[in-house]
Structures are given as structure tokens and as C-alpha cells.
Amino acid sequence: MIYATKIKLKPGRIYPHSALEISTIYLVGVQNERFYAKEVVYDLVKQGYIIQVNISPHYPKLIAAISSEGEKYVRSEPNDTVQDNLLRLPQI
Fold this sequence. Notes:
This is DUF3892 domain-containing protein. InterPro entries: DUF3892 (IPR024997). The structure is a single chain. The chain is mainly β. The chain has one domain (about 1-90). The strands form 2 sheets. Strands 3-2-1-4 form a 4-stranded mixed sheet, covered by helices on one side. The longest helix is centred in the middle third of the chain and has 9 residues, at about 40-45. Helix content is about 10%, strand content about 35%. The protein contains 1 helix and 6 strands; from the N terminus they run βββαβββ.
């Protein structure tokens, strides 16, 4: 399994309100565990890799999305939480 465990926000962002504010995502369960640009994570999801947010008990999957400005990003699949679970990961 591949898990997203940490996020880094775009410069100047402190409290994220949207997955669009994420710049990189730390992935574990891959050959090179490290931070990956959100666009790279988007491409991995589009290629069929299943990446889950390391938030129990649901471990929601990441889904690929494109903003109205054409920006590639990922967000977690909807569940019973109001906030995107990806935004609940520790920030570095």
C-alpha cells in the first residue's frame, strides 16, 4: 500500500482551506519515500496507483482533480468528515 503521511503547503500558506494549497505530499510504501509534487501524485493516481491518506479508520483514497485554472492536484475521496482528510495530515 502507498500512503500519504505529510504535506507541505505552498509558500505563504499556514492553514489550508483547500487541497489546492498543498505543494508536496510525502509518500510511504514507494521505492523512494519522500515528498512528491502534487502534480506527480496526480499522475500516479491517473496511472492507476492507489494512494491512501494515512488517517484511520477509513484511510480514504486520493482522487485526481483539475482546478478551474487547469492546475493538477489530488484530494481525498469524500467520507463522513467535513474537511478533506488530506488537509488533516501533519504539515512540515
